[in-house]
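Field log, afternoon session.

UNIT: design team B
ACTIVITY: writing a sequence onto a fixed backbone
BACKBONE:
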């Protein structure tokens, strides 16, 4: 028996807005792997706050994590959490407030620094969300509009969260060799200047040129902790990640939102510029100094043959799902960039990618191992299931993968240490004193698993395979998995910081 697993990096924000039977259909794989609490609102990508002027942009940016039949019937952070409570939730949910929709509310989709009034508006929105129960703020510094924010903006927003005892979580600005060290130093600088707790989401090195940088990341963050900065982190137990296709394009092309991006993509001159920059351009620091410089050139670092189309909505492109962009190009008789760009135009900018070559690849996970071993890093899934295409296998097997593959088979970690990285370590990050442990006074979030048989069975080609060896899962004392049978019910609670 172990405490229920706490996933600090979930993107199930919109799945939990659905009626319980739809949650059960989409989240069964998460429950069956022992997850009893999820933290939403990560990577600066979130579905709240909303207004009449920002709703369209938010919906498009969130398209790759959006299942069917979402109502989008909330506006404030409080009304979003209230909507979750009305629907009922399968497991416990807590949430950060995402910088992306906050910035859209304060200053629209444009690039550049906020002026004084816009910065004050942005900070006020953070403070309001904190009052309404957010655990902190998240940033996605490779996505629009977060990629347009400079360090001063990050410090101001983080201070607003810290004033209410929240923390700031960061999808760092770059994970390739060109900007890796600078990007990690930026997180440390924000923590120092804002006098705030900072969290490095899914620590990673993208592309083989960056893999050797793993020890340097860990060393820099350990020095920061010794210097008194409250800095925590987490890691995905895979060498591939899932994200939006928009992350492949130069930031200037995304200035003004997704609709403006699609218009530029239709312009032959601007499209040719994008294609040239994707093929040739390396990031420089700082990326916001200049005309929309890359934070990270994923296609150049990983190659079109290591980037797969995970899902699209349109029936005409369904046959391309799980193919590499290079293979899609061959099928369409196009250069990979042009093939991808035409697919995005056909899909209104909404498509999901799987990137292989993150802290290792299909042949070796050696660069990932120091991250998994580090006692500072919690285990997370950073995976979601919306009922479309090919989800990342972590949506069904991230936590059992660690227990089976890295504990039992590889002996990289002891069992007790692995469980700590899934339970009390993330609980401490959230300040949850009554979860993440098995002891008197704690909530009965529990997982019963067999150490000899627990294993992930999901793969990149067959992702929807349930984990093995998880016999019982209890959420607040209610059995949601019993005798390996899934029993969906509204057992979870919506958690608010300080409540």
């Amino acid at each position: 028996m172990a405490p229920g697993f706490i996933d600090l990096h979930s993107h199930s924000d919109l799945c939990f807005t659905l009626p319980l039977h739809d949650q059960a259909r989409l989240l069964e794989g998460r429950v069956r792997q022992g997850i009893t609490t999820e933290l939403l609102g990560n990577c600066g990508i979130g579905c709240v706050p909303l207004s009449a002027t920002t709703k369209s942009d938010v919906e498009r940016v969130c398209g790759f994590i959006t299942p069917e039949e979402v109502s989008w019937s909330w506006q404030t952070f409080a009304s979003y959490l209230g909507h979750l409570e009305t629907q009922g939730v399968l497991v416990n949910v807590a949430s950060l407030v995402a910088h992306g929709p906050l910035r859209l509310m304060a200053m629209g989709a444009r690039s550049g620094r906020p002026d004084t009034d816009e910065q004050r508006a942005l900070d006020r929105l953070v403070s309001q969300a904190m009052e309404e129960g957010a655990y902190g703020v998240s940033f996605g510094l490779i996505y629009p509009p977060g990629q347009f924010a400079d360090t001063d903006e990050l410090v101001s927003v983080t201070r607003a969260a810290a004033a209410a005892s929240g923390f700031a979580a960061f999808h760092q600005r770059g994970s390739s060799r060109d900007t890796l060290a600078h990007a990690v130093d930026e997180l440390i600088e924000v923590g120092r200047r804002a006098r705030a707790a900072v969290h490095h989401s899914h620590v990673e090195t993208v592309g083989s040129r960056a893999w050797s940088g793993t020890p340097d990341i860990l060393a820099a963050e350990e020095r920061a902790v010794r210097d008194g900065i409250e800095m925590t982190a987490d890691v995905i137990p895979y060498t591939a990640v899932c994200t939006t296709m928009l992350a492949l394009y130069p930031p200037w092309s995304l200035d003004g939102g997704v609709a403006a991006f699609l218009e530029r993509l239709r312009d032959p001159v601007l499209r040719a510029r994008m294609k040239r920059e994707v093929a040739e351009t390396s990031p420089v620091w700082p990326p916001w100094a200049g005309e929309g410089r890359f934070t990270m050139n994923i296609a150049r670092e990983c190659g079109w043959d290591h980037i797969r189309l995970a899902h699209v909505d349109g029936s005409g492109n369904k046959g391309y799902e799980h193919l590499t962009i290079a293979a899609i190009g061959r099928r369409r008789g196009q250069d990979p960039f042009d093939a991808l760009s035409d697919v995005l135009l056909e899909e209104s900018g909404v498509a999901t990618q799987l990137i292989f070559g993150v802290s290792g690849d299909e042949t070796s996970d050696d660069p990932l191992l120091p991250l998994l071993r580090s006692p500072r890093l919690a285990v997370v899934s950073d995976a979601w299931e919306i009922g479309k295409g090919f989800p990342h296998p972590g949506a069904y097997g991230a936590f059992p993968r660690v227990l089976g593959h890295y504990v039992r088979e590889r002996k990289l970690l002891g069992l007790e240490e692995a469980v700590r990285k899934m339970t009390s370590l993330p609980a401490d990050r959230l300040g949850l004193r009554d979860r993440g442990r098995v002891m008197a006074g704690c909530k009965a979030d529990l997982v019963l698993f067999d150490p000899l048989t627990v294993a992930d069975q999901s793969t990149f080609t067959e992702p929807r395979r349930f984990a093995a060896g998880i016999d019982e899962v209890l959420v607040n004392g209610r059995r949601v998995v019993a005798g390996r049978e899934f029993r969906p019910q509204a057992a979870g609670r919506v958690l608010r910081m300080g409540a």
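LOG NOTE: Residues 155 and 190 are 5 Å apart (CA to CA).
NEXT ACTIVITY: expression trials, pending approval
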